[in-house]
Amino acid sequence: MLVLGMMSGTSLDGIDLALLDTDGEEKITTGASGFFAYQPSDRDILRAALLCADGLPTDILTSRAAWPTPLIAAETLITQRHFEAARDFLAQEKRQPQLIGFHGQTLTHRPDEAMTLQIGDGAALAAQLHIDVIGDFRSADMRAGGQGAPLVPLFHAALIGPLEAPLGVVNLGGIANVTYLSKDGAILAFDTGPANALLDDWMVQNTDHAYDANGALAAQGQVDEAALAALMQHDYFAKAPPKSLDRLDFDLAPVAHLSAADGAATLTAFSAQALAAGLAQCPQQPSRLILCGGGRHNASLCQHISRVSGCAVVLCDDLGWAGDALEAQAFAWLAARSLRGLPLSLPQTTGARQPVTGGVLFKA
């Protein structure tokens, strides 16, 4: 079936869209893709909701009737922007999808409390677009004892084909995650640490830019080794995988005293060092790393990763993958799997007790 996938990540830059002709298994034929950018005022609303959700107890977060205004405003915004993005994107397409994979926007992720919150009204979106929607991809995994994240690794494995193993597929979004694939086909996946999230927050607070384009500011700075060491003291790195992170699990306190350039350099080095620490928890050193996600556009980050990982590094685009559309494609593929009752996660990717399907179907 033809499926539209939509993904709004923790970087809060906008919505990725991608069409995929797929059976949710080995048939993966890519179609058109696009991007719908959030306005600065949109990002302000979403950041306010992130901070609000971070301070709320789980019982409030899981009861929409008890939500404070910032969360309600953010969900209304997310639903409306996804409607506008899909409407405008599909207006240009001759073929219309039979299904939409709608990830929503993660506001908080608390695996230790078996709770994750992705906002967005799937029922309203289905009614507005007159297309069936599958959303709420993560809750079923958490009910089965899983972390609820990452969910893209099974799609990574489906794309890999005959590539030489062992290898790692690294998604450099707001948070970084790695999919490790061994020679015998075994898989392991987990979040490694921040990729772009902390650096983006630093840029917003210390410059007139929302992100460090191509790592230019980081390239002008010096890594503060003491601050880097302090960041690496976080207890997350000692946890065994599978494991996952919330966007706000790390903060900027260790670099607060640095100049804009030195802070950017240090945070960039931290993202790479955190990834290297994660790779050390894999069964074997990957022969190479395939870099995906927005962070692959950051030359400084990619150089750091190449240096500290000890792996050969290749960009996913060099393999013919649509790097900017990959996560949207993944949620199209996962939606097709959900409709067929196929697993979206495994014990080795999220820590669930058994392979788990998931997703909630909202009929048009």
Structure characterization notes:
The chain is α/β, with parallel strands linked by helices and 364 residues long. It has two domains: 2-148 and 325-362, Nucleotidyltransferase, domain 5 (2-Layer Sandwich); 153-310, 2-Layer Sandwich (Nucleotidyltransferase, domain 5). The chain has 13 helices and twelve strands. Helix 10 (260-279) packs across helix 11 (299-309).
Which CATH class of the largest domain applies here?
Answer: Alpha Beta
The major beta sheet can be summarized as: 7 strands, mixed
> What's the number of extended β-strand segments?
12
Morphology call: globular
CATH H-tier superfamily of the largest domain = ATPase, nucleotide binding domain
CATH architecture of the largest domain: 2-Layer Sandwich
**CA gyration radius, whole angstroms:** 19 Å
Helical content class = 25-40%
Beta-strand level of the residues, as a percent range?
Answer: 15-25%
Output the CATH topology of the largest domain. Nucleotidyltransferase, domain 5
Q: Please provide the ordered H/E string of secondary-structure elements.
A: EEEHHHEEHEHHEEEHHHHEHEHHE
**Mean pLDDT over all positions:** 96
So how many helices? 13
Instruction: Return residue spans where pLDDT drops below 50 for at least 5 consecutive residues.
Output: none
Alpha-carbon distance between the termini?
Answer: 16 Å
Number of domains: 2
Secondary-structure content class? alpha/beta
What descriptive keywords fit this protein?
364 residues, alpha/beta, Nucleotidyltransferase, domain 5, 2 domains, seven-stranded mixed beta sheet, five-stranded mixed beta sheet, 13 helices, 12 strands, globular
